[in-house]
Each structure stands twice: as structure tokens, then as C-alpha cells.
Design brief:
The chain is mainly alpha-helical. It contains 4 helices and no strands.
Length: 88
Amino acid sequence: MKSLAEALSYSVAFLASVGRDDEDAADDDCDALESITAIIRGATPPELEAIRVASESAISTLLKSEPSDQALIQGYRDCIENFCNQTA
């Protein structure tokens, strides 16, 4: 589950953080995020915890890099806030 959580966490963070100049590409990113959101809403507590752990680990790694990718870090933080902190 760890690898899947890491991949999902990265996908959400990347899509949330990337700045698209192409309006069609930005719309496609939004559509992808909406689809991912619908799936994650049905995740179990252990699955959400795995996503949270993967996101926090990625943030920690990114904060150590120079220069750190602040947009991607915020994408991971958004992932945690929007998915992992949801209430049942």
C-alpha cells in the first residue's frame, strides 16, 4: 500500500501545484483531480493514513532540497488537508 499511497500523493500534489499556461491542459488537470477526489472519498482510514504518511514524507524530503519546490510542497499539504483530515 505504501507505493500506491506515494504515487497517489504525488499525483494529487503535482496536479494541484502545476501552473498550466494552456487552458485545455488546466481543465484536464481539474478533471483528473475531481476523479481522484471521488475515489479517495471512499478510502478506508488505513488508506488515508498511508496517503498522509506518504505526503508528509515527501514534504520532508522536499524541504531538504535546494531550492525546495514550494508549489509542490503546498500541493502535498493540500492533499493532506483535503483528503487525510476528512471526517467520517
